[in-house]
Amino acid sequence: MKIVIHAGRPAQALTEKFDYYVGIDRGALFLLEEQHHLDLAVGDFDSVNAKEFARISEDAAELFKLPEEKDQTDLEAGLELVRSRFPEAEVTIIGSLGGRLDHHLTNVYLPLNFANYENICLKDAQNLVRYLSAGEHTIKKIEGYPYLGLVQVNTGRSLEIKNAKYPLKAKDNFADIYASNAFISDSMDLKIDLGQLIVIYSKDS
Fold first, then answer.
1. Helix (H), strand (E) counts: the chain
2. What is the pLDDT of residues 84-130, one digit of tens each?
3. Sign of the torsion angle spanned by Cα atoms 33, 34, 38, 44
4. What b/e sequence results for 35-62 when a residue is b if at least 16 CB atoms lie within 10 Å of its CB, and e otherwise?
5. How many CA atoms lie within 13 A of 99 on its CB side?
6. CA torsion through residues 59, 60, 63, 65, sign
7. What pLDDT shows up at residue 30?
8. Contact, 38 vs 21, CB < 8 A?
9. CA 90 to chain centre
10. Where do the Thiamin pyrophosphokinase thiamin-binding domain residues begin and end (predicted)?
11. Are 97 and 82 within one domain?
């Protein structure tokens, strides 16, 4: 099952088809404006006016209105609900990158709080963010994304990179973030002994 979650920031119009559409706060309105069926709307809806909220309430198949003061972001609450219902689904989150830096960083790290985070990705016009667990992985080149960034999360700087423009041995690992690597073939080999790896495919604007 393929699910898209629109997190509320302006995003490119969807061209890919999904089985289930979720709007977070103003993201629900964006999905309706693009003529998508709105299966689920979640948020405190402080970013829409009364008329817009009325439209969301009328057109959403299901709506969860959250209090304005809470211990979770709207996106976190929405993703938690989606994961509780569809734990194995592939989830693409759009409209979550850019804007306020604290929101941006929170959203980048958010999927790591959930089981099966390897089935979650974040996407915008320039970036595709994926997640890997400890172990050995062969990742594929994706057309249109010439650059690859890697962020280590609790890996003990154990990252190894092979079959890449800039290979790396664990003994030479001196940083938590490595930017602007590139594929030299259709795939690249990565290894971490523990923790998680945030994999960022990117391109210039």
1. 4, 11
2. 999 999 999 999 999 999 999 999 999 999 999 999 999 999 999 99
3. negative
4. ebebbbbbbebebbeeebbeebeebbee
5. 15
6. negative
7. 97
8. yes
9. 11
10. 135-198
11. yes
Same domain, 120 and 35: yes
pLDDT more than 90, % of the chain: 95
CA-closest candidate to residue 199, choices 158, 147, 136, 124: 147
**150 in Cβ contact with 201 (< 8 Å):** no
Q: Which of 146, 147, 149, 172 is nearest to 159 (CA)?
A: 172
Is the same domain home to 38 and 100? Answer: yes
Instruction: Please state, in angstroms and as integers, the Cα–Cα distance from residue 47 to each residue in 4, 94, 98, 155, 169, following that order.
Output: 20, 17, 16, 38, 47
Q: Which residue shows structure tokens 């995003």?
A: 11
Q: Which helix (H) or strand (E) holds 80?
A: helix 74-85
pLDDT (mean) for 142-164 = 97
In the chain, the N- to C-terminal Cα span, in Å, equals 31
Q: What is the pLDDT of residues 22-34, one digit of tens each?
A: 999 999 999 999 9
Nearest to 107 by CA among 72, 137, 142, 133: 72
Confidence band of 49 (pLDDT split at 50, 70, 90):
very high
Separation between Cα atoms, residue 95 and residue 149, nearest integer Å:
20
Residues with Cβ within 8 Å of 139's Cβ and at least 6 positions away in sequence, in order, are: 130, 132, 187, 188, 190, 199
Please give the Cα distance from 138 to 127 (Å, whole number): 19
Q: Which domain holds residue 161?
A: 128-202
